[in-house]
């Protein structure tokens, strides 16, 4: 089938579209999806062309979308943005629902509860990438302002990971989480029962109380609740970071974390009218 | 009653116990007379529980890429489903009085089963009639020249066809319900499938199922398809894949008082016989039925006979046992040893596992022993965090050759992670008993144990013997060394006293009503009894009701 184009109008529209392809197609798809909505959906764009004209043209010549790689890329980008926004909204809602877990007395954290941005790290004490990024993360903890960091235990590498996670919560109960966390994250020995308790003794933890806390059903249940939260957030490995309402999965560099922190701060400023 | 009087009565009871003990020897059940998991069996169990406990999107132990994309039988859904069946068999036969570990693992496996990576292949596979894909140049040409209608697939993995997935899910849910008296999957939406298509910024599509809807959808398809079996991929009916929904419907009937499976079994068997799904000459199971062409593709595959047979045995025991000897002779020992570097073909990595499972179900213990010994010798058995399994060999998807001595080394994840272990664990009529002798309500009123610290201890047997009125529990050390551990016993009769015997030694008598405890035991407010013990080695406990109640004394 041969398509005959109206060269005069079409050239003007096609030329305009190529200049501002991204903005036009966001609008076009927005119009398509809200097709059922009432009210005047015609917007006058520059050059005297209305959005309705654009829409009608696209309906008549959909091959423009298929044939133009730039337009295809714009569509992909718009789609990805929309999915990310939907995901962020859902995560925000879920984290609000789980506030009591995240702010529990069993949850080790640094920074103020009222901080502008919350960063949650899901990690495992036997996770190599988690340990590799630890020094930089700690530096970030000391230098970034107005950030609350939540240390979310997610033992995924077997029994000794689970043991270490329980011990970390026990250390938190004794007020020595940061020192113990540092010891576990920087240890270059294999984790087992002996090494877990040896490190605990070295930093001055009461190991008998620690053992009792590690067997405490409250601690065991708390870790299970954290695990369920990770499942709901679609955390598929460690490390995984929730920065505000965004999720960054394994392979994330500290630089990328900082970029996301800044982005979340900016959004927070805008939404508060600052 | 004041504490002082309680102590007095407890003392008097204690004295009487000693007197009775001295006068009459105590006859207690011997733990050795009850099924108990061996070290390797327990290892297989732990490995499957480790698989269950992986994060939903973590398939690192289950193959580098989803094998279903290679149309292989090591697909995630098969590993997950058969792991759940294996754990069900373990719980039923060895630890019926210890259910929380298995209940959680079962629920985790069902959760993993509905995770998108396990079933979203269907959005792609549903588009094709794969039965002609490589059969001929004409087949290839047809694939290229398909019209838009031919290419149209669908997302929902349960609504139509794809019984190679939905049938397993139905069986898993049915087992969970009936073994644990847990009807969480009756709730509408309890099995919700979320699909996030890559199109136009739409949100995820949710397909909501529950046990009832799933059973109905599958049963309706059996009826619509005139009981010839539900297709897996388009145009392909596999006998073994239809066994799982049949077992699922059997469980559904037990739980709901229906008889959906009765007609299905009867009519499906008629079709099987009429169409020679199992060749009457060779007693081998077909490859599949091409529906449009109405053509049965015959085959001689150990995996097909094993897979179909172990499940059909549940509802067609005599028939499967009658054809088994022919199958056994065909594959054993020829499968196990052949010419050096012989190419065994694409089924090499799973023929072994499924046939071993069939051998276990029909009670051919000699073949099971031969095959599990073979696996231990040639499949590089590995211990990992308390779990025992056979890691997949590199290139198992491509390298089907025997070694220079003629042995098999090719192991895929289904065989290595689950099937060999399942065969080792499953006793004669293992699955037959689960479906034909389901537990009734009285089972859930019997004494049972919980709160076993999984890191420290494994429970190799936990059974309540109703005739003996005794609970028998054996613990062995787990992967994390510990000097001591504990477990909690529930639903002991408050009106009875129990002798606690540890490794054959009578420790004393306990009674909830009177608060009588002995060292290393403690009554809880809810009437449960916590028992603590050292765990340097295996420890067996028997809690046996005494001959007379306290009132009689």
Provide a descriptive summary of the structure in words.
The complex is a heterodimer of chains A (274) and B (553). Chain A is α+β, with helices and mostly antiparallel strands. Chain A has two domains: 7-85, no CATH class; 98-271, 3-Layer(aba) Sandwich (Glutaredoxin), CATH 3.40.30. Chain A contains 13 helices and five strands. Chain A has helices at residues 7-19, 21-33, 51-60, 63-67, 69-97, 99-102, 128-143, 159-173, 177-186, 193-202, 207-214, 217-232, 254-271; strands at 109-110, 117-123, 147-153, 240-243, 246-248. In chain A, strands 1-3-2-4-5 form a five-stranded mixed beta sheet. In chain A, strand 4 and strand 5 form a beta hairpin. In chain A, helix 8 runs antiparallel to helix 9. Chain A is elongated. Residues 1-7 and 33-40 of chain A have low confidence and may be disordered. In chain B, strands 9-10-16-12-13 form a five-stranded antiparallel beta sheet, with no helix packed on it. Chain B has helices at residues 3-23, 39-53, 76-93, 100-113, 116-119, 122-125, 137-144, 148-151, 163-180, 211-224, 239-256, 260-274, 302-315, 317-331, 348-362, 365-378, 413-425, 430-436, 441-444, and strands spanning 191-195, 205-209, 236-237, 288-290, 295-297, 382-384, 387-389, 448-450, 457-465, 470-477, 484-490, 497-502, 505-511, 521-523, 529-534, 539-545. With 553 residues, chain B is an alpha+beta fold. Chain B has three domains: 3-32 and 449-545, Immunoglobulin-like (Sandwich); 48-113 and 316-441, no CATH class; 123-299, no CATH class. The longest helix of chain B is centred in the first third of the chain and has 21 residues, at 3-23. The A-B interface holds A 29, 33, 75, 78-79, 81-83, 86, 156, 158-160, 162-163, 193, 215, 217, 230-231, 234-237 and B 50, 54-58, 111, 196, 198-201, 203, 384-386, 451, 453, 455, 478-482.
């Amino acid at each position: 089938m041969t398509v005959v184009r109206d060269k005069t109008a079409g050239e003007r529209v096609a030329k305009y579209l190529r200049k501002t392809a991204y903005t036009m197609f966001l609008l076009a798809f927005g119009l398509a999806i809200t097709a059922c909505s009432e009210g005047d959906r015609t917007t006058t764009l520059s050059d005297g062309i209305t959005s309705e004209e654009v829409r009608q043209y696209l309906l008549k010549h959909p091959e423009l979308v298929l044939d133009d790689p730039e337009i295809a890329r714009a569509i992909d980008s718009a789609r990805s943005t929309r999915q990310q926004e939907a995901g962020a909204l859902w995560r925000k809602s879920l984290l609000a629902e789980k506030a009591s877990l995240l702010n529990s007395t069993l949850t080790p954290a640094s920074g103020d509860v009222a901080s502008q941005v919350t960063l949650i790290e899901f990690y495992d004490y036997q996770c190599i990438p988690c340990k590799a990024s630890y020094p930089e993360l700690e530096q970030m903890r000391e230098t970034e302002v107005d950030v609350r960091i939540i240390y979310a235990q997610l033992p995924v590498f077997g029994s000794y990971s689970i043991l270490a996670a329980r011990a970390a919560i026990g250390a938190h109960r004794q007020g020595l989480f940061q020192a113990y966390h540092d010891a576990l994250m920087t240890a270059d020995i294999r984790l087992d029962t002996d090494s877990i308790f040896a490190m605990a003794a070295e930093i001055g933890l009461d190991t008998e109380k620690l053992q009792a806390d590690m067997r405490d059903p409250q601690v065991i249940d708390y870790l299970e609740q954290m695990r369920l939260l990770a499942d709901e957030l679609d955390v598929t490995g460690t490390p995984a970071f929730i920065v505000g309402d965004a999720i960054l999965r394994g392979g994330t560099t500290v630089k990328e974390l900082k970029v996301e922190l800044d982005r979340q701060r900016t959004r927070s400023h805008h939404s508060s009218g600052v | 009653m004041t504490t002082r009087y309680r102590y007095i009565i407890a003392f008097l009871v204690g004295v009487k116990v000693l007197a009775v003990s001295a006068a009459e020897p105590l006859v207690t059940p011997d733990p050795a007379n009850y099924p108990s998991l061996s070290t390797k069996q327990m290892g297989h169990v732990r490995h499957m529980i480790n698989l269950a406990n992986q994060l939903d999107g973590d398939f690192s132990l289950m193959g580098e890429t989803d094998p279903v994309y290679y149309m292989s039988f090591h697909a995630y859904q098969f590993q997950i489903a058969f792991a759940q069946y294996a754990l069900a068999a373990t719980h039923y036969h060895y630890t019926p009085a210890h259910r929380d570990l298995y209940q959680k693992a079962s629920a985790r496996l069902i959760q993993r089963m509905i995770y998108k990576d396990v079933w979203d292949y269907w959005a792609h596979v549903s588009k094709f009639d794969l039965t002609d894909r490589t059969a001929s140049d004409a087949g290839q040409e047809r694939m290229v020249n398909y019209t838009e209608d031919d290419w149209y697939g669908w997302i929902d993995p349960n609504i139509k066809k794809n019984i190679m997935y939905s049938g397993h899910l139905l069986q898993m849910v049915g087992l969970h319900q009936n073994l644990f008296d847990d009807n969480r999957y009756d709730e509408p939406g309890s099995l919700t499938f979320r699909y996030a298509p890559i199109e136009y910024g739409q949100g995820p599509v949710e397909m909501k199922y529950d046990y009832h809807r799933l059973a109905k959808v599958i049963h309706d398809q059996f009826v619509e398809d005139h009981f010839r079996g539900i297709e897996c991929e388009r145009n392909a009916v596999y006998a073994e894949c239809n066994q799982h929904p049949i077992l699922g419907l059997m469980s559904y009937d037990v739980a709901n008082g229906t008889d959906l499976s009765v007609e299905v079994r009867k009519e499906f068997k008629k079709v099987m016989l009429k169409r020679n799904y199992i060749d009457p000459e060779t007693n081998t199971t077909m490859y599949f039925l091409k529906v449009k062409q109405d053509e049965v593709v015959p085959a001689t595959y150990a995996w097909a006979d094993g897979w179909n047979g172990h499940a059909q045995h549940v509802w067609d025991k005599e028939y499967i046992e009658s054809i088994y000897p022919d199958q056994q002779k065909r594959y054993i020992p020829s499968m196990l040893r052949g010419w050096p570097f012989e190419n065994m073909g694409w089924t090499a990595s799973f023929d072994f596992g499924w046939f071993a499972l069939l051998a276990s179900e029909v009670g051919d213990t000699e073949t099971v022993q031969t095959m599990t010994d073979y696996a231990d010798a040639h499949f590089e058995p590995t211990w990992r965090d308390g779990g025992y399994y056979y890691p997949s060999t590199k290139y198992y998807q491509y390298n089907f050759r025997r070694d220079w001595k003629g042995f098999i080394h090719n192991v895929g994840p289904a065989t290595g992670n689950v099937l060999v272990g399942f065969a080792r664990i499953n006793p004669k009529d293992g699955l037959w008993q689960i479906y034909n002798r389901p537990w009734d309500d009285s089972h859930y009123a019997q004494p049972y144990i919980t709160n076993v610290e999984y890191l420290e201890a494994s429970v190799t047997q936990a059974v309540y013997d109703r005739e003996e009125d005794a609970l028998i529990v054996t613990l062995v050390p787990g992967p994390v060394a510990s000097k001591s551990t504990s477990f909690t016993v529930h639903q002991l009769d408050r009106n009875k006293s129990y002798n606690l015997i540890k490794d054959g030694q009578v420790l004393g008598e306990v009674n909830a009503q009177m608060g009588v405890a002995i060292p290393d035991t403690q009554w809880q407010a809810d009437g449960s009894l916590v028992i603590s013990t050292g765990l340097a080695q295996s420890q067996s406990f028997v809690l046996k009701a005494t001959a007379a109640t306290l009132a009689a004394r």
